[in-house]
Write a structure and sequence with these properties.
By secondary structure, this protein is of the alpha/beta class. It has one domain: 3-Layer(aba) Sandwich (Rossmann fold), CATH 3.40.50. The protein contains eight helices and nine strands. It starts with 7 loop residues before the first strand and ends with a helix. Bound molecules: guanosine-5'-monophosphate (5GP). The site of guanosine-5'-monophosphate has 14 residues, from strand 5, strand 6 and helix 4.
Length: 198
Amino acid sequence: MQGGENIMVILSSPSGVGKTTITKKIQQKYLSFKISVSHTTRSPRSNEVDGVDYHFVTNEKFEKLIKDKKFYEYAKIFENYYGTLKKYVDDSIKKNDLLFDIDWQGTKQLSKFKNLKIIKIYLITSNKNELKNRLIKRNQNSNEEVEKRFNAFDEDIKHWNDYDYIIINNNLDVCFKQIENIIKLYKQKISISSQIIQ
Ligand code: 5GP
């Protein structure tokens, strides 16, 4: 996997912490960033567009992609598959910085590629009840789905230690600013080290 000076930013969090909003905000402000569009076997929500939010595929198609080793990483989450295609990443990183909205399992798998310029950021909320409200308000999941996502919280946060930064998202603007600073610093570091190597 090669990317020149382009970087990869992984954002993970328990469901409902605001990761999707932040990812979109980064992409809007920094045109160099592209969001990695994952494949999934989950059904689309009413506001989701195939090819934009996810590539929605059947179980058979996903399992064939696994068998053909087409993924850099994939995981089964809430009984559905989610994965990142190698070809998509390899093509995109040549021209863009990439943002990944993936879980801790995928983060672990991507971390094994030591040559990648990856920053791993974990978003968390300090208020678990607020999280449940957000999941309900989001109103994209059935009650059962809300419960499943809420109950996964304790398991999910056990993996915060695998990340470079942990950010508490109690205020979207503050959280966004912190992520911006992390990205700017990392880009500076990459740029300086590539000048030294030349
Ligand atoms: P949702 O169904 O709410 O869109 O996503 C559920 C979880 O799947 C989220 O934690 C999201 O970060 C994760 N996810 C989305 N795409 C991928 C992917 O390609 N790989 C992995 N490992 N996780 C993903």
